[in-house]
Amino acid sequence: MNHLLEVSTYRRVKQRTFAILEGDVAEPASRFCEIFIASLVILNVLSIILESVPEIHDVAGTYFHIFDLFSVGVFSLEYILRIWSYSEKYTEAGDSPWRGRKEYIFSFYGLVDFLSTVPFYLQLLMPGTDLRVLRMFRLLRIFKLSRYNSALDDMFEAIKAEKDSFSSAMFLLFISCLLFSSLIYIIEGHAQPEIFPSIPAAMHWFILTIVSGWGNVDPVTFPGVVLVVITQILAIALSAVLTGVVSTAYTTQLARREALYEMEIREVLADGVVSEKEEITLKNMQAKYGMSDEQVESIAAQVRAEKNLSE
Amino acid sequence: MLKQQKITLMEILEGSPKQALSRYAEWLISSVVLVNCTAVILDSVPEIHAVHKDFFHELEFWSVMFFTAEYLLRVWSLGAKHADNAWKGRREYIFSGFGLIDFIATMPYYLHVFFPLLDLRILRVLRLLRILKLSKYNSALQDLFSAVSSQRRAFGAAAFLLTIAIIVSASLMHIAEGHVQPAHFGTIPHSIYWAIVTITSGDGHVNAVTKGGEVVALFTGFLGVCMAAILTGIVASAFANQMSRKKSSYKAQLRQVLADGVVTQAEKDALKRLQQQFRLSDKEVQTMMEQAQAGKTP
Questions:
Q1: B130: closest CA among B93, B105, B167?
Q2: pTM to 2 decimals?
Q3: With contact defined as beta carbons under 8 Å apart, do B8 and B1 qualify?
Q4: ipTM for the whole complex
Q5: Which among B41, B134, B197 has CB closest to A214?
Q6: How far B7 CA lies from chain A's nearest CA (Å)?
């Protein structure tokens, strides 16, 4: 009996750890945990940047070292706790505790957590490693922040949803790069052989024009002037296409999310009672989608009004 | 007998989903095109040309043979497109955009054989046109064009504004600085070049020397920012419109399917085809499905 009780305490601690680390809304400590880790990450990144200035490094080198030791300690603890507690992710009868753990370890965040911490220990084992490489790995810690902010996920998801438009915009860019750089090579290659000696050199000019609006070359022939002017205008048009694709992707993503949330509310309100569990689900969903309270309120009001109308 | 083969060949080359081989044909042609374009680009670097001249020549010969064979096979097999008249389908292909691209992409080599004195640079660019063959396989590109062309009135208006902005700022600059810097602003066409560069890149690379010139230069740069914003807005709304058009027609179809309460296999296939055609993601479709069902229940 005593043994059983002990096991359940162990399970409870593990479950709570999982809830805290996963940012469950029902767990007040998760907010503190989030703020603590996020501020530590920001301080870390600041210290890496400052440390790279030789004058500051000379004066405060030891403080930076102590701070890094402390951070590595915290992050290692976080990593171990995460692996340990993620066995609680899948709790149905047949699931092995390693299912959730494996999922975490090989997820984007799992790899970031690993790669941003482990190089420190590698340095202890192999002291000859280049410090710059280590610094780069430490900078990976900034990606830990994206766990608490869905911006990065949002971006990837939006791009994935519109990948056809993106790829055709890229294709357009690719084709125009080939055609325009070969044209300028023919037209201006004779007149300015030191600037356009080959098509790859002309491609450099084209890409510069597209990204900065000006390719840094003044054409000397009249067809060259016309071509440069067309390329300049093409540059704005192409950036407009890319911007248009991105903004559409974001807008449709937002609409999709609101629709999903609306579904959930409709389901919750269907039986007329909002249980505590349902409320938590809605809160978690709101946090995950980063929707404001007003947005949520207006969706709920709409659904309620529709319901009253049908009754 | 031959007729059946003609139809099969047409389906392979035209990318019919019935023929598994058509996918490979697409890959093969695309990779030959990409290898070719890379070779043309590298061949234009004098150092590389000096060393690998013979290899590039050989490659060009075999690619031309390949593209010629592709072109002839297409012309031959497209005779099967319209059962009544073999040359109707062929004519359609030969004078279509893709047919012309295929022709122009192959021709330079023969041109060079018959007119050996032509400028090599021009031939090289004609060879690079082969890249356009790839657009046949990118249907999203056609979507992009249709989205943009649906807003052509707005684009026309933006082009009009752009022209006015260029002419006004060029004339102002000519008045302000024409006598001070005659090399750059001595004539209005000279100033127009400066105005276009300033509007598109934000800086015309000629420093104004008078106070009036400075004001005009800043004003022109600011106009450039406005123009970029207008163009971006038009394109973005074109995309958004296209997306919502696709979605509403998919939704209409979905509602029709769900109306009788039964989803038959044929209806499922039709929905799947529509989804592919409109390039809607599975997630979007699922959301719409749930919405349609929720709308039905009460």
A1: B105
A2: 0.72
A3: no
A4: 0.75
A5: B197
A6: 30
